Amino acid sequence: MGKVQSILIIGGGLAGSCAALQLAKRGLQTEVAHQNSIAVQTASMVPLALYNPAAALRAKKGWRAEECHKALHGMIDELTEFLGHDSFVSKTGVLRPSLDEEMALHFKKSAETEGWPEGWVSWLEPGELKERFPESEHRWGGLWVQAGMTFDTPALIKGLHQMLTEKYACRISERKVVNLDESKTGVEVRFEDGSAITAESVLLAAGASSKEIIKPVAFNLHPVKGQTIEIKRFLPETFSPSVSSRGYVSLHSHRVVVGSTYEHHFKDLNPTAQSAEFLLKKVPKSFPGVRLQQLSITKSWAGIRLTTPDRLPLLGLIPGKKRIYFSSGFGSKGIMFAPYCGICIADHICNVNDLFPETDLHRQVYH
Ligand SMILES: Cc1cc2nc3c(=O)[nH]c(=O)nc-3n(C[C@H](O)[C@H](O)[C@H](O)COP(=O)(O)OP(=O)(O)OC[C@H]3O[C@@H](n4cnc5c(N)ncnc54)[C@H](O)[C@@H]3O)c2cc1C
After folding, report:
1. Where in the chain is the domain with CATH 3.50.50.60?
2. 157 lines ligand 1 (CB under 6 A)
3. Architecture of domain 90-149+222-307
4. What backbone phi and psi angles, to 5 degrees, belong to 255?
5. Distances (CA, A) of 343 to 116, 196, 212
6. Is residue 98 over pLDDT 70?
7. Domain 6-46+154-221+309-364, what fold?
8. Would you say residue 286 has pLDDT above 70?
9. Rounded to 5 degrees, what are φ and ψ at 165?
10. 212 alpha carbon to ligand 1 midpoint, in Å?
C-alpha cells in the first residue's frame, strides 16, 4: 500500500482521540466513529484521572517517561490555546503519603535512584510532610510528585473532539461499528444502523469492544473492572493535590473522586454498593483526621481497563491485515501513554518510524 491518505478511527476515547490528532497533524484526512455517550465500556469517561509518573508501590519511572510527559504537555498546551482555558486539568501535583515502613522504603528509594528529571519527584520527611500537608497521613513521610496532574477526563475528551473537528476538519460521529472486512482496495466498515462505508485504512481503538468488531482479536488483553465514587469535598480549600497511596483521592476544582477497585472477575459493569463501601474506607487511611460518618457519596462509576501481561500498550497492524491498525492496552495509564502512543502509531502508519518492540502488538499475539 502506498502512502495512506485517509483513515477511519474507531473509538473516540484517549487512544483514538490522541491518535486522530497526530494523524491529522501528519496531513491525513481523519474521521472518528465512537459511541461515548451510550457505551458503558468507555474507560476514558472515568470522572477524574491522575497523571502520576511515579505510580504503584515501587513508584518507578515507567516506559519512556520523559517522552510520554513531553507528548502529554504538548497536547495540553495545544488544547489550552485552542479552548482559551485549561479547566480540564489541575496541575496541582500528586501526593503519595507512605502508609507503612515498606512503602516509605520504596518511595524514598524511588526519589533517590530513579533519575527523575528536575522538579518531578521529591521525598518528604514526616515533619516536612506534616507542615506542608497537615491533613495527610504523615507518620512515615511521603513522595511529592510535583509533576502529577488530575484530569476531568470527559472534559478533556470533549475538548479534544472539539479541536479535532474545528481545527483539523476531522469528522466525528456517534455510530456503533459492528464489523470490519478488509479487501484489496479498502476496509468495508459496517455500522449498527445497517449502513456501510469503505475506508482506505482503519485504526481500531475501541477499547474493550474491539474484540467484538474484529473477530478474533487474539491478543493477551485482560479486562479489569474498576469502580470509582464521587464524594462531597471534605478537605479545606488550602489542600490542592490529589493523593495516591493504596487507592487514590483525586481532587479537581470542587470535586473529589475516590478510586479505584481492580476486579478481575465480574458479572457486569454496574457499580456495586460493596465496592463503594470498600472505596470509602480508603479515605481515612490517607487522611487520619477524617471519620467515615463525615463522608457522603454522590455518584458511582465503573469501567473496564485493558491490561497486558507486561503492562505496556499494544500498537500496530493487526496480524494478517494490511489496512487495519490497532491501539489499546493502556491499563491504568491512559493519560500517560495515549498522547505519546498517538505519535508512535501515527508515525508508523505514515511510514516515518518503526514501532518500539516493547509496544509492538506482535509480542502479545496468541500462537
Ligand atoms: C476505574 C478506572 C480508573 C482509571 N483511572 C485512571 C487514572 O487515574 N489515570 C489514567 O491515566 N488512566 C486511568 N484509567 C485508565 C484509562 O481510563 C484507560 O487507560 C483509557 O481510557 C483507555 O482508553 P481507550 O481509548 O483505549 O479505551 P476507551 O476509553 O474504552 O475508548 C474506547 C472507544 O471506543 C468506542 N467504541 C467502543 N465500541 C465501539 C463500537 N462498536 N463502535 C464505535 N465506537 C466504539 C467508545 O465509544 C470509546 O470512544 C482508569 C480506568 C478505569 C476503568
Report:
1. 6-46+154-221+309-364
2. no
3. 2-Layer Sandwich (3.30)
4. -95, 150
5. 23, 29, 26
6. yes
7. FAD/NAD(P)-binding domain (3.50.50)
8. yes
9. -70, -50
10. 16
